[in-house]
Amino acid sequence: MQLSKIGYAEPKLMIFNDPYTGQPTPIKLKIYPKNSKIGKQAEHQMRLEMLELLQDENNIDPTTKNLKTELIETITFNYFASLVVDWDGITNDKDKPIKFSKEECIKAFKECNELCDAVFKFVDDKEVFPMKPKES
């Protein structure tokens, strides 16, 4: 078996439901699972970003002794944006489609935290991304 194939998973389509009404929206995202090769690479990158930020004491909140909240939010958005590979149904204020890019995805997460929350739940959903049992 090719080692490059281990951990590979196809991205799956997530339909974003309005978190307040539960109704489906026109927004669809194509996403890799967190336990895929892509997901593990994104998680590794997130850890490197955290370690780098921890090197500068200006990034630490003196009351909590943790990274500042806005930095944690940025790292989180970067991580989840790394798992999203495409989308459909997201428009600007003039109803023009916004072309997918990691940068636009991060902007969308900042504007709508509920979208990031939905991606968070989706990438960890065992029904969407079941783990295959090891063969003996």
Structure at a glance:
40% of the residues lie in helices and 14% in strands. The chain has helices at residues 37-54, 69-83, 102-111, 113-123; strands spanning 12-17, 24-31, 84-88. A three-stranded antiparallel β-sheet has the order 1-2-3.
Provide keyphrases for this structure.
three-stranded antiparallel beta sheet; alpha+beta; 4 helices
What is the chain-wise order of helices and strands?
EEHHEHH
Which stretches are poorly predicted, pLDDT < 50 over at least 5 residues?
none
How many angstroms separate the termini? 16 Å
Give the overall silhouette.
globular
The major sheet is characterized as:
3 strands, antiparallel
Q: Report the mean per-residue pLDDT as an integer.
A: 90
Structure description:
- This protein is α+β, with helices and mostly antiparallel strands and 136 residues long.
- Helix content is 40%, strand content 14%.
- The protein contains 4 helices and 3 strands.
- The chain has a 3-stranded antiparallel sheet.
- The longest helix has 18 residues, at 37-54.
Topology, element by element:
Elements: E1 12-17, E2 24-31, H1 37-54, H2 69-83, E3 84-88, H3 102-111, H4 113-123
Antiparallel strand pairs: 1-2, 2-3
Helix pairs in contact: 1-2, 2-3, 3-4
